[in-house]
Amino acid sequence: PYRLPPFARSGMTANLEFVIEEKTGALAVPASAVQQGSNRSKSKAGSGSGGAPDPERRERMLARMRENGMSEVEIQERLARFASGGGRKKEGGQDEASSSGTYVLTDSSNPEKPNRKPVKTGISDGSYTEILEGLAEGDEVLIQKIKISSASSSGGSSNPFMPSRPRGGGRR
Fold first, then answer.
1. Residue 155 belongs to some domain of the structure
2. C-alpha to C-alpha distances, 163 to 66, 158, 166, 169, 171, nearest whole angstrom
3. Where in the sequence is the domain holding 100, given as residue range(s)?
4. DSSP state, residue 159
5. Cα(48)–Cα(61) distance, rounded to whole angstroms?
6. Total tally of structural domains belonging to the chain
7. Residue 100 belongs to a domain
């Protein structure tokens, strides 16, 4: 069995970070730049494990993923993997979801219609995603604009761990 350091006690909490895979010199883009296309041709709704869940179940899954702190990009990646058969490996070892329908947006002459450039993705840490094929070093990609909600722009707090003060009239 593994021995704990002398300062460790039962009931203590710890923050752990597991490095599953690491690459140096990899071409990577912000994860928010990577988009998932529709995989409808691969699986039809209700066709066993590769089908889409009913709308009520899908909403519960989305709510649970958001509660667990997943970003919208991670949620979209997870949904695309689910739609393509659960992320099964192909013979070459690549994840099925990472090679079909994945693209980045690049600048075009028409700002209203950016170009979709298909890419093959590798590992991701949630912030950056490795690009195996489709882009070269120095290529520029577009990322989505982040909207700030009216609550946070007006100074309101939405942190569930911070107590909120009663609003309304002052002291009497």
1. no
2. 21, 10, 10, 18, 19
3. 28-144
4. -
5. 17
6. 1
7. yes
Share of the chain above pLDDT 90, in %: 16
Residues 6+ apart with CB under 8 A from 78: 65, 70
> What pLDDT sits at residue 136?
92
Q: How far is CA 37 from the centre of its chain?
A: 14
Give residues with Cβ within 8 angstroms of 9, minimum separation 6. none
CA distances from 49 to 53, 74, 85 (A): 9, 20, 7
Q: Give the predicted TM-score (pTM) of the model.
A: 0.47
Contact in structure between 42 and 50 (CB atoms under 8 Å): yes
pLDDT at 15 over 50: yes
With contact defined as beta carbons under 8 Å apart, do 95 and 81 qualify? yes
CA distances to 47, 71, 88, 106, 132 from 115, in Å: 33, 24, 29, 5, 19
List the structure tokens of 148.
């700030």
User: ∠ at Cα 124 (140, 152), nearest 5°?
Assistant: 75
Residue 21, in any domain of the structure:
no
Residues 42, 100 contacting (CB under 8 angstroms): yes
| Residue 62 is assigned to a structural domain of this protein | yes
